[in-house]
Structure prediction request, 422 residues.
Amino acid sequence: MIRKIDFSFLKELEERPNLILMLSIVVTLPLSTAIFNVSVTIFLINLLVQLTRGKRSGYTFHRDSFWIILPILFLFCLYSISLFYSNNKSSGLIIIERLSPLLVIGLYFCFIKFTNDEKKFLLFGFVSGNILSLIFNLSRALIKSINYTDNKIFFDASVLRGQEFWYSIDQGGNYFFYKELSYFIDPIYWSVYLLFSFSIVASLLFLLDGKIKYISLTILSFMLLIAIFLCSSRIILFCLIPITLVFALRYVKKRITLAMVIILGASLILTVGNPRLKRFSTINGIVTSNQNRLDIWQSSWEVFCNSPIIGNGLGESEDILFRAYISHGHPEYATIQLNEHNQFLQIASSIGIVGLIPFLYIIIYSFKKSMLNNDLIQFTFIFSFLLIGFVENFLVRRAGVIYFVFFFCLLYTSDKPNKKIA
Prediction:
């Protein structure tokens, strides 16, 4: 049974500026990553001031957290070192700036620990941010869909005028779907956020008692499912069914609730019925839809083979990849500068097998801890990240880097090992 959160710590918020800073990051992350720069600046100033106070400082170096976070810090160091043997240092520096949260947030959690209640508070703050983003995006889509012509008001959500409704959705030409819906960040990143938020809410739903809480959490879960459907990231839709089943199997021994049946049914219907998955109904459709990625992965593999041990270096690996596109007869890929569309290949081509080792360790460690803790929030976090990593460079934008390093540190640097966050 999940315990209620003790909100008594909120009375001492003025004495916990770090909690306020982290809350500002998680709430605004689905809306904008710009607040991260402001929060980090305030944190660094506060850290320097506090450290000058010596033992009176509110910061303590936590060795146990450091060993957990060390692979992330090591990964950032390898990226930084790769600049020395890269022939395109200017592009490499731009990428390093995007990866800087690996270092900053990683070091932050080496000095700060949150209580279990504070961690839950931050998780709920992230859910709130996603709900705010959903309300804004739906309101924006509704406003853009209302047209006023010849003194008449009519509703038309199709961006691709004159096209059939489902076709417009499939091509991202509907204000309520995919890229047109997600205003703040790429729909793939927002889909990951939404799935993780769903796991947080569902964990509470299957455990808490109380009619009002039960109804409100059921509605909130359904809202997040609808948002995932509208965002229409195919890989996240594929994640949704197994994760929902895992939740159901985890709690079915305790009780089968109406909410469980609704969520399972809704997940199945919203996934199977999504128009962006129609092309996957046949083998030929699957091959055709993924041919571009297969071509990209073939070129990326050649880049990795060019320097498999230490990689080609940040910036340089991208240049070699673009040349590989041209040599394989895909100059259009180079023109629009398509990346590897695979997190493992991106790391392998940039910093080689040496970089893959800490990255794989992070994933294996996260899976192991989620199983030991029997924690479905941790499991959803790492499972969705692993699957998205097979088809996207998730750690290529701030929205992905901040999300990954922050929640990895929050979920796995616990005061009490093997204690579930929710």
Q: What stands out?
A: The chain has one domain: 15-277+349-412. The first helix runs from residue 17 to 28.
